Amino acid sequence: MQKLRYPDYEVVFVDDGSTDNTQEILKSFPWVRNIRQQNMGLSHARNVGMNAARGDVVIYTDSDCEVDEDWLYHLALALLRGGMRASVGQT
After folding, report:
1. Beta carbons within 10 angstroms of residue 45's beta carbon
2. Nearest-CA neighbor of 63 among 46, 79, 40?
3. Cα(67)–Cα(52) distance, rounded to whole angstroms?
4. Integer Cα distance of 83 and 67 in angstroms
5. For residue 71, what are the contacts with CB-CB under 8 A and spacing of at least 6?
6. 8 A C-beta contact, residue 57 and residue 76
7. How far apart are CA 34 and CA 23, in angstroms?
């Protein structure tokens, strides 16, 4: 996420009860907003992240995803140009 080419974004990380070294890894990314909660499931974690987000556009990704440096730019542009309120995609 540090190499994203996008002018202004925030990262909200919701740790949904992980039992591995996630919290230790997150110490290397002090600019990430870290929210810890007991395991409540993916939908609950995403809702927590959405409610904590400060931006106008909310885009989710998961811990097992690797994104392109222009990923955020193209998704936000498609949403804004298309006048959409939501978009869903999966690979």
Report:
1. 20
2. 46
3. 22
4. 24
5. 4
6. yes
7. 9
Whether the Cβ atoms of residue 27 and residue 34 lie closer than 8 Å to each other: no
Residue 70 DSSP SS3: coil
- The number of beta carbons lying within 10 Å of the beta carbon of residue 22 is 15
How many Cβ atoms from other residues are within 10 Å of residue 35's Cβ? 15
Which are the contacts of 24, defined by CB distance < 8 A and separation ≥ 6?
A: none
Residue in the block written with tokens 């998704």: 75
Q: Which of 14-18, 37-41, 69-73 has the lowest mean pLDDT?
A: 69-73
Instruction: Give how far Cα 84 sits from Cα of 9, 18, 37, 72, Å.
Output: 19, 33, 31, 15
Q: Which two tokens stand for residue 16?
A: 């949904």
Q: What is the pLDDT of residues 27-61, one digit of tens each?
A: 999 999 999 999 999 999 999 999 999 988 888 88
- Name the DSSP class of 64: T
Rg for the chain, CA atoms, rounded: 14
